[in-house]
Amino acid sequence: MRFEIDWTSALIDIYKYGSTVTMRDSEIFFKNTNLPPGAVIATWGSNITYQQVRTPLQLPLLKKGESYCLSFNGQILPEHSIMLQIIFLDRGGKVIEKQVLPSKGGDFTYIKNAYAYSIAIISVGLNEMTFSKLSISSIERGGQGSKKYKTKCEENKKLIKKKENFYE
């Protein structure tokens, strides 16, 4: 399973104060030189109804107890100035657990007692970002298939590493 998460013009849960957000081709350019560390730049949710925000599905449904690879595709300035946060929620919308991944992404397991989840991009000193997409890929356990998915997750990280010198 592979799902690409886009930042569309309909995404309303973004940090707007003092930010310049521009769409070029299929990429989003985000700039805010006064962004405080820890600020949530953008959030996507799995339990969003069309009536709430008038957008289609933002995140895929994940299987409980399964492992996934989340990867960021884009450029950030300065390097490593964002973190990806996954928040798991119960049926009542209360936070059960939070996981934080580095800027390039990483592996996570969808916890068994979660009902919904959200993914956020968090600033840790960000000035500029060109966002292409986030990707979620399943990681199979055991057998030959697991090598394929783990390798794909590692390939995504290597590709992103090559693109990080975009601003130089």
| Rg over alpha carbons | 16 Å
Strand fraction: 35-45%
Shape: globular
- The secondary-structure class comes to mainly beta
User: How many E strands?
Assistant: 10
**Overall tally of domains:** 1
Residue runs with pLDDT of under 50 for 5 or more positions: 160-168
The name of the CATH architecture is Sandwich
Q: What share of the residues lie within helices?
A: 10-25%
Total number of helices: 2
Q: In sequence order, what are the helices and strands, one letter per element? A: EEEEHEEEEEEH
Task: Give average pLDDT, whole number.
Answer: 83
**N-to-C CA distance:** 34 Å
**The CATH topology, please?**
Jelly Rolls
CATH class (first level) name? Mainly Beta
Largest sheet: 6 strands, antiparallel
Could you explain the architecture of this structure?
The chain is mostly beta strands. The protein has one domain: Jelly Rolls (Sandwich). Helices cover 15% and strands 42% of the residues. The chain is built from two helices and ten strands. It has helices at 50-53, 143-163; strands at 2-5, 20-24, 27-31, 40-45, 67-77, 82-89, 95-101, 105-109, 116-123, 128-139. The strands form two sheets. Strands 1, 2, 3, 5, 8 and 10 form a six-stranded antiparallel β-sheet that branches. A hairpin with a 5-residue loop joins strand 6 and strand 7 (95-101). InterPro entries: Acessory_Sec_prot_Asp3. This is Accessory Sec system protein Asp3.
